[in-house]
Input
Amino acid sequence: MISNNIIRQYIEAVNSHELSIITDMMAEDFVFIDSVGNRLEGKDNMRVAWEKYFTFFPDYSMSIEEVFSSGDTYILVGSAKGTYCPYGNFDPADNWDVPAVWKVNLQKDKICLWQVFADNTRLFQIINRYPGMGFLA
Output
């Protein structure tokens, strides 16, 4: 479904939690913007963030159903899902699955922007059941 090889490989790497591949595919000045507008800049900072994210969501994955593009900008439509595991134990009650859209910008065969649009209400409800354990804490 995804015609751009770079984006397809990045999603495959995220879904398999391959940090070295994910990092290699990011531009040095990579920018990540989450669904509430938080911004994280820099390839090295994003590697640390992904590592932490995969610890809290060890089964995190994305699926893409549609792709739209204009030049080096891509819009991906699909869903994201995972299970929040703040203590390393899977609890089916802590599973979430949400529709999502991603805006991706490429620059010289590297991803320079990854922006997420999703209603993470369910995820935040799950996280709030574990005071002091937020994955951004």
